[in-house]
Amino acid sequence: MSFFIQALFIAIPIFSILIIIEHVVSIYAGIKINRATDIISSLSSGITNITKDGMKFGIVIISYSFLLEHLTVFKIDTLWISIPLAILVQDFSGYWLHRLNHRVNIFWNRHVIHHSSEEFNLSCALRQSISETVHFGAILMIPAALFGVPAKIFAFLGPLHLFMQFWYHTKLINKMGWLENIIVTPSHHRVHHAINNEYIDKNYGQIFIIWDKLFGTFQPELNRVKPVFGILRPSKTWNPVIINYKHLWQLIQDAYHTKKLWDKLRIWFMPTGWRPKDVELQFPLDSIKKPREQIKYQTEASLLFIIWSFIQLKVALVLMFHFFTVIHLQKPELNYIYGGFIIFHVFSFTSALDRKKLSITTEFIKVIALSLLLFKQNFMWFGLNANYGNLLLVYSFISLGATIYFYKSFKTNLKYSIKNV
User: Fold this and answer.
1) Where are the alpha helices (DSSP H) in 377-411?
2) Which residues neighbour 163 within 8 Å (Cβ) at sequence distance 6 or greater?
3) What is the pTM of this model?
4) pLDDT tens sequence across 387-413
5) Over the stretch 65-90, which tens digit does the pLDDT of each residue have?
6) Which residues contact 269 (CB under 8 A, 6 or more apart)?
7) How far is 350 from 113, CA to CA, in rounded Å?
8) How far is CA 39 from CA 36, 76, 164, in A?
């Protein structure tokens, strides 16, 4: 089992406890930071991202090991030098990848999910991409390769660097004095997630804020400007799989509809949000012009339905943990099947959150897929005995029935919105 997966078994419970603590403190402080549907969407996104990473679904254009083999000119053998150097290089490369993800049309699709929440809380930190399948970030780690920093240091440091970005996604911590000059704080990151004109495309730093100050992208949080969170073209869905590919689908449509060949080619690498003039006129998109007048996306949801949706989320989490316990014991094709099933399960119950009739169809497909998988494995479920397999089968029928019931029980299937508060 990889260090990343081992670390998840520790990190996920810690994150869950911190999310609960944040919620309790916010109630005590009288600060509105959470909506149940938004939390379910965020946590579901985290499950899809981690599952995708476990499947190792992606293409590495260039690896750090390759650079290390071909570029090392002086090998540093002492850990007390190589580890600080690795931390700086990791954060430097993270800054520039983050900035590219924000500023280039095609790269924005890799990152839009993280900014799609119209709230700002610890759970939204878990909104991570499944569409980031082409990896090229190692090219920015050449300074470490030149000095022969071992790859195993980055294998250990990578997950820690990612987990350390969790804590500052909160409204509950104000400015932190002298630390504001060194590390990324909640105040800095509130600016980064905001869509106000004063804040947009600022503070790309991940651990250290020094890169933003060096490269001209730093913006402090202003007392007179309350951050408004989300994206300028709202996703208007709770489904993390759809959010992951919605921008890409828009680029494909625009490239198809525009008449100029040059526009068909350059649209992918233009600044984020750029569209050809002819397409912009013919197919206008909803976008937020005045952030302070933002209307947040919301859908009809009873308390019972919210409880059921959390149960669905819990099923996804249990399946994910089991997936990680067997991932090193199975053939890669079985891992793809298992991981794909988990992601499809998330797609299905978050479609129900959107009040989509599609959710009934996906639940039918889930019953069929689960039945076929059990039949192929003699009613064993990826190493678990038949009792667990039968339990899952019963659950799948309950899930289908509950989805039909909740879809028909609401007075309307229309979505509604709430004002930004």
Assistant:
1) 386-409
2) 7, 11
3) 0.93
4) 999 999 999 999 999 999 999 998 654
5) 999 988 988 888 788 899 999 999 99
6) 104, 105, 106
7) 14
8) 5, 45, 20
